[in-house]
Amino acid sequence: MEMQYDRLVGLTYECVLDEANWLPLLTELICASGRQQGALLFWDQTESGALASEINLCDPGAIETYNREFCTIDPSKGFMLHRPVGHWYHDRDEYGPQRIARDPYYQEFQRPNGMHNVSCLKLNEQANCGVYLSVLTSLGARYPDTQEQTLLTRLSEHLTRAARMFGRIDEMRQQLAHRDLLLDRLPTSLWLLEGNARVLYANQAARQRLGQRAGLFHEVFGRLHCRQHDSRLQALVRQAAPRAGKAKAGWLPLDDGSGQELLVTPVPAEASFNQPFQRPLVLLALLDAHRQSGLLGDLFGLTPAEQRLGALLVRGLTPEHCADQLGTSINTVRSQLRALFRKTNTSRQAELVSLLVRLGHR
């Protein structure tokens, strides 16, 4: 029995990192505890019943019927709702054979589906929901003996701890998936690097760039490199996450006519979103001036001609020089400038340029 107990404890903690291990655990648990069926249930405690999960060892038709019709009248809820986590409920002991014999739930659902007695453990509980483990004897099977009941009691602490750990890790997985979803929607390429340029994270736009044949960026043994400006990039990364001294941000124009620039930003070890790593890191962003210009055009409803004028003004050109660059008359430039003032709710050229710079127009 001790070897069996130790094996069940080991299986229990294997569930923490891999949801697929719950079913093998359930299989061995029902056998070791003198049961024949079992299921994990998720209970929205603001509603009237539980739902059996796909992690079960019951007839599929019975699970479907339970979730559709009988979960709302399962008498176990009255015993489990305010029950502390880690305490088993045994229907024969607490509900009693006489009430079981008269209860419509047992007569119309459990008996027709070959189920007899149920034991249930609240594994985990949050504000409005709970996770439960139910193990059942089948009709005609003997009732579990004292040793088998004791095994369940001994395992309850490990089962609840594993469920709590699994829930926390699953919550972290969901947070990471949500973060990835948001960052992958950004058109800007983003990398999170260590001070030696080792890549810890890259969003979808960055991964696509790395996948380009003969592209500007590539990885060597997990470290990010830039084909044309690698020495400068590595220096900026080391500057942003130095072994000693103050971290400094950096800026690297690519000078290839693409209008792209690299922003290299320190991420302090104490930053709230750096808690998983807790060491200085570097955020690398590839900014595309053409894309930024397009976004500003969408934001303010600018025409392509107005966007081109705005880009020249940001570079410090006067309206007269802008007219020369654009090959148009000074009157046309002044007309476009008035349109820019109106659409951006500014009144002076300096104010307009300041706004465009703050919003990333380069």
Describe the protein in words:
InterPro entries: PAS, PAS-like_dom_sf, Sig_transdc_resp-reg_C-effctor, Tscrpt_reg_LuxR_C, WH-like_DNA-bd_sf. One of its GO terms (molecular function) is DNA binding. This is PAS domain-containing protein. Pfam families: PAS_8. The protein has 362 residues and is an alpha+beta fold. The chain is built from 15 helices and 12 strands. A hairpin with a 6-residue loop joins β10 and β11.
**Overall geometric form:** elongated
Question: Which class of the largest domain in CATH terms?
Answer: Alpha Beta
Per the CATH scheme, the topology name of the largest domain is: Beta-Lactamase
**Share in helix:** 40-55%
Cα end-to-end separation: 73 Å
Strand order of the largest sheet: 2-1-5-4-3
Major sheet details: 5 strands, antiparallel
* Secondary-structure class: alpha+beta
GO molecular function: DNA binding
Pfam families: PAS_8 (PF13188)
Domain HTH luxR-type: 299-356
Protein name: PAS domain-containing protein
Architecture blueprint of SSEs:
Layout: H1 2-14, H2 22-32, E1 37-44, E2 50-57, H3 60-70, H4 76-80, E3 88-90, H5 91-94, H6 97-102, H7 104-110, E4 115-125, E5 129-138, H8 146-184, E6 189-193, E7 199-202, H9 204-210, E8 217-220, E9 223-226, H10 230-240, E10 250-253, E11 260-267, E12 281-288, H11 289-300, H12 304-314, H13 319-326, H14 330-344, H15 349-358
Antiparallel strand pairs: 1-2, 1-5, 3-4, 4-5, 6-7, 6-12, 8-9, 10-11, 11-12
Helix pairs in contact: 1-2, 1-8, 11-12, 12-13, 12-14, 13-14
